[in-house]
Amino acid sequence: MIRANQLKVTVQKDREKAIRQKLCKQYRMKPEQLKSVLLRKLSIDARDKGEIKWVCNVDFTTDCDDQLLKKNKQLTEAVENLYTLPTKGTVALGRRPIIIGFGPAGMFAGLLLSEMGYAPIILERGESVEERTKSVTEFWETGVLNASSNVQFGEGGAGTFSDGKLTTRIKDIRCQKVLEYFVDCGAPEEITYLNKPHIGTDVLKTVVRNIRNRIIADGGEVRFNTQVTDLLVEKGQISGVRLENGDVLESDQVILAIGHSARDTFELLKERQVDISPKPFAVGVRIEHPQSIIDYAQYGEGETQDLLGAADYALTYQASNGRAVYTFCMCPGGSVVAAASETGQVVTNGMSEYARDKANANSAVLVSVTPKDFAGDDPLAGMYFQRALEEKAFELGGSNYYAPVMRVVDFLGQSSCSDKALNRMTVEPTYRPGVSSSDFSALFPEFVTEAMREGLIAFGKKIKGFDMDQGLLTAVETRTSSPIRIVRDNETLESTSATGLYPCGEGAGYAGGIISSAVDGIKCAERIIEKYQPLK
Ligand SMILES: Cc1cc2nc3c(=O)[nH]c(=O)nc-3n(C[C@H](O)[C@H](O)[C@H](O)COP(=O)(O)OP(=O)(O)OC[C@H]3O[C@@H](n4cnc5c(N)ncnc54)[C@H](O)[C@@H]3O)c2cc1C
Question: Is residue 505 lining ligand 1, measured as CB closer than 6 Å?
Fold first, then answer.
């Protein structure tokens, strides 16, 4: 096949036809000469709002490939870099590998280990996605939190109730393997070529269930409502885990993929003197606007709106106090969600469904924090810093899991916040179970509030209306990444204090987001596969 890169195609109803016409025109071919066309990459170029373009990389075949390649130096032969499965090791595996946590890291480690015959046992403290959905819905409707099964804990991990954005900055051939698994398990094919793929929480739930069934079909085992409450380490070697019900499961290969919110397990690691260190993260609020404001700012008023879907944004700013301020996890046409996992705390995050067709756009507006900002030198000081903010937000919201909200203009001190002003807004707050108008300018340390104010004003210069009276803030966003790193050897990926224990994914501080956590899961699984023979 021939590869054509950066093909600019005007956005129109029939994309396939538009791409074919562009190829024929650009490389002077008759339509009948063009055979197959395969989309490899697709992004949007909206710099010229009057004529928004798709930018495509395509592979195609014709009845005159050789002449075409000779005549057009910018065309190349299409070469595909494919992920290759690891080579199995030779050491006999005494006991089945264990994976703690069934989020993206645990799921994709489980997929590869079971596919290659290592029959992993996966332990997840939360419920299956079906039961978990009931618990989460009940929390959002009634404010009754299930601390074991919620937006952070349960089948599929933290990202299940999300926008399901499958974007990542890492360049790793395993990303392709992850997307392949997603498509095999029910995600739309387009995620393999869209520049910003997303699948939404509705599609993600089905995919997660299919991943579970595939692991079981390949000989793996998934246990829900099964919390690991202790790690058994003898002479620096992991030998098994203890479960909440007291049972012990023996294994000398344990992948620890617990996510950024497993605070009781972080406490256990400290107690067991497993090497952990504090790491930087970010805190802030969720901001909401009418999606129409964002669509207009990004795409203008063209008719192509429907073909482009709800617009997104990514904004950054360096505050005068040196802090980075940036928007994060933007959810077009979505909702702000209650993402608490411990009682007496309010935590926000964002979610959309595949269609992204809700009235509001939302994202986190975050300010960077580092271990220097946390009191004392306890490795868990960052985790306590997060918790303190969440408890304050809980109180500010009325101690009933309602979230404190404030208009951007009030936070910027451009007017006084009041329920009346709040009710005049067109943007309807989406956080459930409910919100209460509050003044949270004293919620954060001064350096965060200052930087956030500066950032909001700067973002208002990039997107008209961002910092004006149609902007609503909901507090508090703290679970932006893990507050600790569980230290591991860069080669073996094993904990520096327990051989056979593989700190993995976001919770261990080696990934951020669905794709990079899944890739880290595959990496840890490869290490086990390359050392040991499969069980079957
Ligand atoms: C609401 C929300 C929206 C998000 N949106 C996106 C998005 O659109 N795109 C994106 O890329 N990222 C998104 N993220 C981030 C993404 O979800 C995480 O980066 C990713 O899930 C991390 O994967 P992980 O497997 O490392 O950890 P997690 O997904 O956190 O999974 C860890 C699992 O371990 C389990 N566990 C913890 N402790 C124990 C224990 N002791 N015993 C047994 N099980 C245990 C937990 O219950 C959990 O299910 C979002 C996160 C949230 C919360």
Answer: yes
Is 123 a pocket residue for ligand 1 (Cβ < 6 Å)? yes
The per-residue pLDDT for 367 is 98
The DSSP string of 58-110 is EEEEES-HHHHHHH-TT-EE-------PPPP--B---S--EEE--SHHHHHHH
CB 181 within 8 A of CB 88: no
Are 473 and 491 within one domain?
A: no
- Asked if residue 241 and residue 187 are part of one domain, the reply reads yes
Distance CA 502, CA 459 (A): 40
351 lines ligand 1 (CB under 6 A): yes
- What are the φ and ψ backbone dihedral angles of 17, each rounded to 5 degrees? -65, -40
User: Does the CB atom of residue 509 touch ligand 1 within 6 A?
Assistant: no
Q: Distance, CA 215 to ligand 1 centroid (Å)?
A: 19
CA of 36 to the centre of ligand 1 (A): 40
Cα–ligand 1 centroid distance for 276 (angstroms): 19
Does the C-beta of 101 come closer than 6 Å to ligand 1?
Answer: yes
Give residue 159's pLDDT: 85
Q: Are residues 420 and 442 in the same domain?
A: yes
Centre of ligand 1 to C-alpha 143, Å, is 21
In short, whether 201's Cβ falls inside 6 Å of ligand 1 is: no
CA atoms within 13 A on the CB side of 444: 24
**What are the angstrom distances between the C-alpha of 511 and each of 31, 98, 359?**
46, 20, 31
Q: Tell me if 443 is assigned to some domain.
A: yes
- Which domain, by its residues, includes 19? 2-77
Query: Residue 153 pLDDT more than 70?
Result: yes
Residue nearest to atom 51 of ligand 1 (CA): 159
- Omega of the bond leading into 433 within 30 degrees of 0 (cis): yes
Answer yes or no: do 370 and 489 share one domain.
Answer: no
Cβ of 153 closer than 6 Å to ligand 1, yes or no, is yes
Ligand 1 contacts CB of residue 332 (under 6 A): no
Is residue 497 scored above 60 in pLDDT? yes
Q: How confident is the model at residue 376 (pLDDT cuts 50, 70, 90)?
A: confident
Which of 102, 136, 95 shows the shortest CA–CA distance to 223?
102
Q: How many domains does the chain have?
A: 3
Instruction: Give residue 107's pLDDT.
Output: 98
pTM metric for this prediction = 0.96
For 94-122, the pLDDT digits (tens) are: 899 999 999 999 999 999 999 999 999 99
Residues 303 and 242 in one domain: no
Residue to substitute in 98, 108, 124 for testing ligand 1 pocket (most ligand atoms within 8 angstroms of CB): 124
Question: Is 92 among the domain residues?
Answer: no
Establish if 90 belongs to a structural domain. no
CATH number assigned to the domain comprising residue 136: 3.50.50.60
Mean local confidence (pLDDT), 295-303: 85
Note whether 237 and 321 are same-domain residues: no
Question: What integer best gives the mean pLDDT of the chain?
Answer: 95
Indicate which CATH number applies to the domain containing 73: 3.30.70.2700
Over residues 194-237, the pLDDT tens digits come to: 999 999 999 999 999 999 999 999 999 999 999 999 999 999 99
